[in-house]
Structure formats: C-alpha cells, structure tokens
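In this section we walk through a basic example: taking a raw amino acid sequence and producing a predicted 3D structure, encoded as discrete structure tokens. The instruction is simple. Fold the sequence below.
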Amino acid sequence: MKIRVLDIAYETMADGPGLRTSIYCAGCSHHCPGCHNPQSWDFNGGQEMSVRELLDIVKDVLAVHDVPLRALVVKRRARYDLARTVEELKV
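The resulting token sequence is shown next.
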C-alpha cells in the first residue's frame, strides 16, 4: 500500500503536547471555505511512500530519541479520508 505524504514534521509541538513526529497525508474531499491548507486537498499531492517506508521513519525517530512510542500523529484533513490511511498503518 502506498500513501501520499505532504510532509513529515520532526520534533513538532503543533499537534499535541510534547515533542512528536507528525505525518501529513495528502487528500481531503471536504474543500471547506476558508481552509488554511488548501494545498492538502489534492489526493495526488505530495510524495508517494509505502507503509514500510513510513514505519521505518517512525522506528528511526524512536531509536534517535530512545523513547517508547506513545503517540503517532497522522494528519489528513477529513476524518473519513484519514481513517483509510491509518488503517493501512496498523501492524
């Protein structure tokens, strides 16, 4: 399975308490008026990555910080679109 990734933010505090790595996925079908991130709407945007590549990135981040995984932030604008993405990351 491939996932379109717009960005990976390392050591961000923008998506919850404490430092975390956030994976921002492409695609949102809502197209809300006034959206602060309309470039995320395109399901073909970003870079195609395999689930294995994303999991390897998560493992690398954990190894560098030597901490257990407590939270993984995967961002996609629409909840029902995000659900399909997160389902693929389950291991």
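Looking at the output, two observations stand out. The beta strands are 2-12, 20-25, 47-50, 73-75. Residues 60 and 85 are 21 Å apart (CA to CA). In the next section we compare this with other chains.
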